[in-house]
Specification:
nine-stranded mixed β-sheet
């Protein structure tokens, strides 16, 4: 509780003393004379004079009170309280911690919880006394967490820092904040010995509860130590509502996006509250243009998915967005996806088997499938293949290509392996197609390297004999879940199931490999293996891509599968485009980009320069300031002269607004620790921030009291007992009763 005064009150105190001074200065002075006849008269006079003196003292007190109350009324005093105890006799070191995680953006009335937290922090500082020191921290994922590291004695500086705080869209870890508080409490020189720590938060379970038992133990130990060194005050702003819905994911159902082909997008929406949300509007936008809408019904505690289909008619960078009809926490109602669509994909085909006969090279059927030579086919292939010999690989600038097909290449030198490794790190794709010229020992030693190289599988012995085909092997697509074979499901005329292979290599994946089998033979052995490696994409085909080991190159299944493999291999070239708030945007660039100028356009429109780090064979772009969700546009200057889009989305674990109660805080995080818990702070602040007329209610009451006492004083000066009756109504009742009784 705090009572606000002004200089008027000091003047009132001085004026209140004036009647007393006048009374003392005007005391009657007289001489005493002995007179026997007057003894009885003197006794009567003394008795009357005591009554007169008492009346004069009471009259003087009323006049002094009139002056004091008048001064108080002019000062417009008012009370304000946060429900906190501020001892007036002891300077205090106060550490204020504001929760800056995105759940604090929840709107309560006309303010967000974060703005309310700022107001509470300002009130704490404003109500503190002279000699108090302050530190300011925030619970946030991004640095800095410690805003005011050196204890400050200037209230205005702290209030300014609080006003400058912004709410990012990320989560926050409380444990590092506790470590920082511990260090601040250990500071002894120049700060008061009394310590208080204020946590202003919604105490959301997802952010406050540690994720493991070991983390919980560490958290409790830190809290226990803080409780021993300081008084802990938990100010809870999260009790008014816990209803919230959010878009939790947005993804493509295809592993790669091609121009002119329908692409399916899946948006998932979840209701984290306890009340059903019926007929909520869900919007699907491409390049900021509305494409489709849905009405979704959300059951409490469950998620619902909607599928949107779109065909990109032009290449380039595209932004896809899903919006859910707004609620009190708007930041998680939108989700973005960056979709790069390439018009042309450059493919380098390395021929490891030359032949004098027509279509006898290892890459002939491959190049024809990627780009048919006959215009009559009506092909709209996005691929631009180029064929080179196996000895020409080192002389190529691989950064000009999106993927490389290594077709029946006999040997790979260490220099070539290093070149291909750099290509994969830059996001390129490599498809290894085996054949009769492959040196298995060289591949395993130079490329596989016991699972540490760029070849994801160990090559084993051959199975079958294409020269004397006594047995044939058929493809087994399994459940058709891999994108290479997904389009063949329900389409038996495509010939996938009756493609004949007479010879292949047995491939072995290492334990716990991230790669997966895209297609098998009917023997159970892998036919095609796919996965990401070093930022790029690698595929291994156990048989040849020509007609030397089977009829696949002549079969209807060949062309669509080759194009699917090429699209998949090229998909890594665009790099990762989707990140979470707080994650650094990273992009591997060609080595020639070491001196390129880069600018980043933020979701809000601001522009920031960025830098590149250079290594031996690649350049890497990094941008760490991603505290706002949305689309980040990165512009690369010459020699790249390109623009790429990156999507940054919130981590929706924070969307569950379930908060910890006082009992849960005491049981889970603060067992056996004495702490103060406040929940009605905002109501007090709301009452405090009213109009001047509302705050002047006390002044009006004081003026009414002054008018009443002035009337009483006049009545007492004329007839004291009438004024006394008015001042003390019970006396008037007693007097009237005696008069009636006679």
């Amino acid at each position: 509780m705090e009572f606000f005064l002004s200089p008027w009150m000091l003047w009132g105190a001085a004026l209140g003393a004036a009647p007393i001074i006048i009374h003392l200065l005007n005391k009657r002075k007289f001489r005493e004379s002995e007179w026997a006849a007057m003894r009885f008269l003197i006794q009567a006079v003394q008795k009357k004079s005591r009554r007169i003196r008492l009346e004069q003292l009471l009259l003087m007190a009323i006049r002094a009170l009139i002056m004091i109350l008048l001064a108080l009324a002019l000062a417009e005093p008012h009370f304000r309280s946060l429900g906190l105890t501020f001892p007036a006799d002891a300077p205090t070191h106060r550490i204020v911690v504001i929760d800056s995680t995105f759940s604090m953006g929840f709107q309560q009335g006309n303010q967000s919880r974060f703005h309310q937290a700022q107001e509470v922090a300002r009130q704490i500082i404003d109500q503190s006394g002279q000699g108090d020191a302050f530190n300011l921290l925030r619970i946030a994922e991004a640095a800095p967490q410690v805003i005011v590291a050196t204890p400050s004695f200037r209230k205005e500086d702290l209030v300014e820092e609080i006003s400058m705080l912004e709410l990012p869209h990320g989560r926050g870890d409380v444990a590092p904040i506790l470590e920082s508080i511990k260090e601040l409490l250990e500071e002894k020189s120049g700060v008061p010995e009394r310590k208080e720590v204020y946590f202003i938060s919604d105490f959301q379970s997802a952010g406050w509860l540690p994720r493991s038992n070991s983390q919980m133990t560490e958290f409790r130990n830190l809290m226990k130590q803080l409780g021993q060194d300081a008084q802990l005050v938990m100010i809870d702003l999260g009790k008014q509502s816990q209803e919230n819905t959010a878009v939790t994911s947005l993804r493509t159902l295809q592993s790669h996006v091609a121009m002119g082909r329908p692409v399916q997008f899946e948006a998932t929406v979840q209701n984290f509250g306890r009340i059903p949300q019926d007929s909520r509007l869900l919007e699907f936008l491409v390049d900021n243009k509305l494409q489709a809408t849905r009405r979704v019904n959300l059951v409490p505690g469950t998620a619902a998915s909607e599928i949107f289909t779109h065909t990109f008619s032009a290449g380039g960078e595209h932004r896809v967005e899903v919006r859910l009809q707004g609620d009190a926490l708007d930041v998680d109602n939108r989700r973005w996806l960056s979709v790069p669509v390439r018009e042309r994909l450059n493919v380098l085909c390395v021929n490891g088997s030359r032949s004098g006969r027509e279509m006898g090279n290892a890459t002939d059927f491959l190049a024809l499938a990627l780009q048919p030579s006959e215009p009559s086919t009506g092909s709209t292939s996005p691929f631009s293949p180029r064929v080179i010999g196996s000895g020409d690989l080192v002389g190529q600038d691989l950064q000009d290509y999106d993927c490389i097909f290594m077709c029946n290449v006999a040997l790979v030198t260490p220099a070539e392996a290093k070149l291909l490794e750099s290509f994969l790190k830059s996001g390129g794709g490599v498809v290894w197609s085996l054949g009769d010229r492959v040196d298995v020992e060289n591949y395993n030693a130079t490329l596989y390297r016991d699972g540490k190289g760029i070849l994801p599988v160990k090559i084993g012995p051959r199975r079958g004999d294409a020269a004397e085909p006594s047995e044939a092997f058929y493809f087994d697509p399994g459940d058709y879940t891999h994108p290479i074979v997904a389009d063949f499901q329900g389409n038996p005329q495509a010939g996938l199931g009756n493609t004949l292979t007479y010879e292949y290599y047995q491939l072995t994946l290492p334990p716990r490999s991230p790669f997966r089998v895209a297609l098998r033979f009917d023997t159970g052995d892998p036919a095609i293996i796919d996965g990401t490696i070093d930022g790029g994409r690698a595929l291994v085909v156990a048989t040849s891509l020509d007609d030397s080991w089977g009829n696949w190159a002549l079969w209807p299944s060949y062309l669509p599968m080759i194009r699917e493999m090429a699209q998949l291999a090229c998909s890594g070239r665009t790099g990762q485009r989707d990140f979470s708030v707080g994650q650094s945007i990273e992009r591997v660039l060609p080595a020639r980009a070491f001196d390129v100028d880069i600018t980043v356009v933020r979701p809000g429109g601001g522009t920031t320069p960025a830098r590149i780090t250079q290594s031996e064979s690649i350049s890497e772009f990094q941008f760490a300031d991603t505290q706002t969700s949305g689309i980040y546009e990165v512009n690369f200057g010459p020699p790249l002269s390109d623009t790429e889009l990156f999507a940054v989305n919130v981590d929706t674990a924070e969307s569950n607004l379930t908060s910890l109660s006082r009992d849960e805080l005491a049981a889970e995080l603060l067992p056996g620790i004495d702490f103060d818990y406040q929940t009605d702070v905002i109501q007090n602040i709301t009452n405090e921030t009213g109009t001047v007329a509302e705050r002047g209610g006390l002044s009006r009451g004081l003026l009414y009291a002054v008018l009443f006492l002035v009337f009483v004083e006049l009545l007492m000066a004329w007839q004291f007992r009438y004024g006394l009756w008015l001042l003390f109504p019970p006396l008037a009742v007693i007097a009237a009763y005696k008069y009636w009784r006679g």
